Amino acid sequence: MNPQWSAEFLARSQQSHLTIVAESKHVSTPIFDTILESIHRVRVFSLTGYSASWNHVTERLSNAAPHLQKLALTSTGGAVVKIFTSDIFARYAPCLRELELTGCIFAWTSPFLSNLTSLHVYNIPWDARPSISQVIEGLGNAPLLESLILSAVFPSAAKDDSDGSLPKHPIRLGHLEHLVVQGSVANCTLLLQHITYPIGAKVNIRCRRPHEPIPRLATSYGLNYIHDLGRSLNKDQTYRFIHVGTDGDLVELRAWDALDTTLREPIGEPRLDILFSLRRILQSHRANSVEAMKEFWLGLPLNHLVSFRLEYDCQPLSEEVWSSLAHITTLRHLSVADHGKGVLAALRSVPTSEETISPFPHLCSLGIEGWKFSEKPAPAYTSFGALMDCLKARRQAGHGIMNLHVHNSSGIAATDVEELRSLADNVTWDAFADSDDEDEGEDSDNDEEGRNKDDDEGQMNDDDEEEEEPNATDSDDEYEQPLYFDYPDVFGWS
Hints:
The chain is an alpha/beta fold and 494 residues long. The protein is built from 14 helices and 20 strands.
């Protein structure tokens, strides 16, 4: 835009409040100078671009901005941009409520923090990142925050409190509704240990992004931080559904506080979303990932947990991991995908005396998904016999499984399902078994033998289509529908 047109536009706006959204590569210095002369009229100011071309803009933000409500500055590279110097906006921006900075240096002692309801800070340059104590001190001056995102803000290595710089009492963020923190597990833990927030706030933690340096942590050292991270979350929050899933060396835990009428599936958005790259944090094989995640969920308040689901694509888990959930008396629904090692052993454990509480005492629903009963020889922990023994042991102990859901599991036939129904009140099965495929093959052979060898190819194709039509309604069968859902990443983090 021509500077003269900019001046004419501002003149014709007749002192109306302005929203300025600009990319520096498309705007010249004279135009910015013209705009900044009217900063007292601006409500929203958003600037994105290569920082070397607009450092002069921040140097000219020295006039009062009495109507400014949102400031968003995104540096895409170049020189480091320093924001909130001592004379920015002449120390007068009383309406500023939203601040979003990317690639900029931010002064955590700024007086403007006191009125902010939204603070989003991303990708502070490594050599300019603040300490944990500086961030916490700054948050102490922002009691009105409703949304807080700190992504790639902390230094690469966490520092302890040997110098007494961390506050003795947690900072209260009494209005916080949405918290996102991305960094090392140590830094995330230290931050959460020194802030408090209301029940119902959505918490999203990422430990950590692949491109950041990973401090080498001894396994025991890393596990301690993981356990402490769970303990640092709000102890008054109620979690009724927990979903743990893995993708390579990543482990994600999501927790909801509301369930549907079946008490098996969550509704709404998760109140807690934690993603760990445990293989990199612990410098160990990914098979230990969920073993380590146990240290996290043991730190959570689980006294209201009703439903727990695990999707695991690594080696089977031990009985010890499952036993860590066995004491939760409110747990009624358990679902295990891919592996069964340990869970059946933990479920069928019978107390040695009347005074000992049975494991999973109120569990009434068990979901099995992706188990391979068809493997020959079948692993002892996923064999059909092991499942039957588990159900028998629980029924004899007076804690029988009422609802058994077998989904996407091979090597189980209709006769096996009938046996399961003798030990569980309600058994649902999606007929995924390999034996069904073999039966279909035999039927196809019999049909082929009955055909006239002189039929032409077109008639054979018609016959084939007629044979396939009865199977067209299979998808309408009630057991064909998935029993569980793949929950989306509600905050848009990859």
